[in-house]
Amino acid sequence: MKANFKNIIMLVVMVLAVVIAVSLFSGLGDDKDEFVYSELVELLEKDLVTDFEISEGGEVTVHYLKPIYGANGSFEGYEKDGKGENKIYEESYQISYTVQIEKLIEKAEELKAKPDTELGDTNPTGTNLQWYNIVPTPETPWYVMYLPYIITAVVIIALWIFLMKQTSGGGAGKIGSFSKSKAKVVGGDKNAVKFADVAGADEEKAELEEVVEFLKDPEKFVKLGARIPRGVLLVGPPGTGKTLLAKAVAGEAGVPFFSISGSDFVEMYVGVGASRVRDLFDNARKTPASIIFIDEIDAVGRHRGAGLGGGHDEREQTLNQLLVEMDGFGTNSGVIVMAATNRPDILDPALLRPGRFDRRVTVNYPDIKGREEILKVHCRNKPLEETVDLKKIAQTTIGFTGAELANLMNEAALRAAKKNKALIGMIDIEESYMKLILGPQKKSKVRTEKDNKLCAYHEAGHAVASYYC
Question: Is 459 one of the catalytic residues?
Answer without folding.
Answer: yes
